[in-house]
Amino acid sequence: MENQKSTSKQIMLNYGLTLGLLGILINVIIYALGYSYNIKLLMITGLSLIIISIVFLVVGIKKFRKYNGGFLKFSEGLKIGMGIIVISAVLSVGYNYLFSNYIEPDYEKNMILVSEQWTIETFSIPEEAVFKMQEENEARIAELEPGSFKPVVKSLSISLIIGLIFSAIISLFLRKSEDID
Cβ contacts of residue 118 below 8 Å, gap of 6+? Predict the structure, then answer.
């Protein structure tokens, strides 16, 4: 049992740290290349990171199952998956907080405006809807508080909810119990 605990902690730590640092590295590269406001690239990157997260969850949970004699309870898989996601999300959200408050303080405001422009250019939106969207975005910008932890809490919550869903689904598929005779 003690070996199982150290193995699960090791898997969560290794995969969580690697996944979190990979996400940070990708974001640093995007920033260094000057693509921080490229909506299409950011959407592709976001989808890619979701797929990479799923792969890390599957591999991490399978690795735990292997060390557990080929058996895995749903609760064990869920615990491993959530451990990976929590560590990764804390790193990513921490980096995003530092980025948007110290490295690029106007990032959130600029991103709202860039997203608005991209939406207008990409979709044929009636003029009335464009004015309404612009008013809503102006209100969102006015509500932005430098150094606020609201975006951190929101981002962390979303990451954990999505991670819980993926971990549960993966654990359902990978669970394997011992046959009791």
Answer: 39
Which residues lie across from 176 on neighbouring strands?
72
Cα distances (angstroms) measured from residue 54 to each of 51, 60, 61, 173, 174: 5, 10, 11, 13, 13
Do residues 161 and 48 lie in contact, with contact meaning Cβ atoms separated by under 8 Å?
A: no
Distance CA 143, CA 138 (A): 9
pTM: 0.88
Could you write out the DSSP letters of every residue in 67-114? HTTT-B-HHHHHHHHHHHHHHHHHHHHHHHHHIIIIISTTHHHHHHHH
Instruction: Supply 91's token pair.
Output: 């790193």
CA–CA distance from 113 to each of 42, 104, 110 (Å)?
Answer: 15, 15, 5
**Please, which pLDDT band fits residue 130 given cuts at 50, 70 and 90?**
confident
The candidate with the shortest Cα–Cα distance to 167, out of 87, 69, 67, is 87
Domain boundaries, the chain: 2-99+149-174, 106-145
Beta pairing partners, 72: 176
Contacts of 26 (CB under 8 A, 6+ apart): 45, 49
Indicate the angle between helix axes 2-32 and 39-67, nearest 10 degrees. Answer: 160
pLDDT in tens, 137-166: 898 888 888 878 888 899 999 999 999 999
